[in-house]
Amino acid sequence: MDLNFTPEEQAFRADIRQWVAEHLPQDISHKVHHALRLNKDDLQRWARILGKQGWHGWAWPKQFGGPGWNAVQRHLFEEECALAGAPRVVPFGPVMVAPVIMAFGSREQQERHLPGIMSGDVWWSQGYSEPGSGSDLASVKTRAEKRGDKYIVNGQKTWTTLGQYGDWIFCLVRTDTSVKPQAGISFLLVDMKSPGVTVRPIIMLDGEHEVNEVFFDNVEVPAENLVGEENKGWTYAKYLLAHERTNIADVNRAKRELERLKRIAKAEGVFHDARFRDQIALLEVDIVALEMMVLRVLSAESSGKQSLDVAGLLKIRGSEIQQRYTELMMLAAGPFSTPFIHEAMEAGWQGDQVGAAHCAPLASHYFNYRKTTIYGGSNEVQRNIVAQTVLG
Amino acid sequence: MDFDFTDDQNSLRDAVRRYVDKDYGFEQRRAIVKAGGFSRDAWNALAGLGLTALAVPEAHGGLGFGPVEAMVVMEELGRGLVMEPYAQGGLVAPAVLAQAGGDVQGEWLPRIAGGEALVVLAHQERQARYRLDVCDTLATDTHRLTGMKSVVPAGDAADAFIVPARAGAADAGIGLYLVAKDAAGVALRGYALHDGSRAAELTLQDTPATLLVGADRGLAVLEHAVDIAIAAQAAEAVGAMDRFVALTAEYLNTRKQFGVPIASFQALRHRMADIKMQLELARSMSYYATLRLGDAAETRRRAVSQAKVQLGQSMRFVGQQCTQLHGGIGVTDEYVGSHYFKRLTVMEMQYGDSLHHLGEVSARMQDTAGVFA
Predict the structure, then answer these.
(1) Which residues lie across from A214 on neighbouring strands?
(2) What is the CATH number of the domain that holds B88?
(3) pTM given for the model
């Protein structure tokens, strides 16, 4: 047993740190460090910078143009990016659909789609949830009917994060209604510029346009855009979910945000209030414990000597921690977190602040982060999964 | 970064587990509780396994193993609810004695390694709660001690005590002294703890003692000793919780109500998920405390306090909820589960509860955060 990274891993970390310091635009990291609004250009600029280096798909194997890093190296890369204030990479292309295309897609699909994902030029969206299919994802109703060399798609997807920017969307669609739900689902790639695709915004409780509804009205999709075999989509979807692993804990970002919480608490005069400070200390313990759990998983993955089935625990704990730091930041600012000034979340806004500038985004952030225990498999569904590992 | 155990460490684990399964079953344990809560035979058996030699330096007849081996042993002792104070006599005492002058080491360490001498730390005072720098026991220049120590582990079975005392006056530093059980002016009053283990009140009246560590660094060595104890207990708690959780899972899958196994009820399944969370967080922090034991004092103390905050919360939650999930049988003396609950409860109040250590974490907080902060 050894807590420390090897000298080689530490050298790797140092290289990444230097590269990020040299390449991450300061206007972007400023926004991240101050929880200001990130626009499409911010996200895509960073994606393209990573893409140019071959790191937008940082978890990809070499044969598909990735760096071929192991689990520890991937973790160190993620940590250095997070601590430096890089935006979280929009996962739908490089983290979600790309591994499915690599594992189950045709050579043509791989050659057509992977380069655009790696470069950051093509923006992907996720078409999983539907109005009637949340936790019960296998109940998706969006139909894809084969007609000649095309599928005709009809239906509706929802909660499509940043779908307003999407070029392509990967969808779970129903191709067979006569079998049990899981057996009639296919995995389809859809060009969002196709006639019949409509994206409508959903404005969330913080006033932000982050998610969308996507409607499909007789959308023609070439049959060559089917990934793998028809009616095997559920298998691919599960593969995708299994691919998220430790990333879902997001402990690196939690460390960065805990540092911000301490700065805010100091500025607002509550850091030396024992009752408040103890709450920060408790969160710090939670974050160290989560990080240790992540490191245990990485170690187990690297050596292959243990199987550590804690993905559900990482999702539950990681999301609870994210909510807790946004909550404590808001409480630190107290009444100064209550004004809702939509423009104050834009970098460089020159209007009149109420209280310190750092107060402006805190409540929005708090409200926004209620999503973390709901998405990606709600924490209640995660508890079902965890219980299964203990009780069978 | 590596959290795998070596083959040797796995063999050590297997050896301890075999002993516990064979010779420290629930009925054998019950007999030890009835006889007072400490068994010299059991202690000798641990010595026979080589465990009392584990942390003793090789130069003094020991094996010179490190914190990870200690953790492995403690997990297994915790799983079996072994009451003999191995953490104190097998891990803490050698660590303190290794800081002492040469003669004392040569006199005591080989006997500890061989299992002939049980030496325990006697530091708890009435007014101190969990503060190690609160000490009213006084030592004269000629090393004669007067004072009282409480809840000394296996106190009336021990052969000697490591006693912190103020050297000379109330505002002097704290030295560490060795007091033999049969020294003049030693009085012991033994009693049982709620978990079935044994403890004692130790009264010293002008008792001759041997100076182990002077007042210049006595407190630092005491803090290190207590950190070793906390890390060891964290591992013990993980072993105990792991077993209690397994027993609870078994019960939920066996017990039927409304015609079905109660493991089918989602309210209970979600509770079990929360229990599993607390167990794995505790295991993670047990590793963390153990792997930080060799670090500089500031880093080590912060890590150990962080671990004890987690362990305290986990022990209480797992103890209470595993008891709850058992229903009526869980609160009977007859069932082994209640003995896990009592052991976990007692452990939270040894070496600092969650609130105490949260205060320590709070006081030691830095601008950065995380495992490598």
Answers:
(1) A157, A199
(2) 1.10.540.10
(3) 0.96
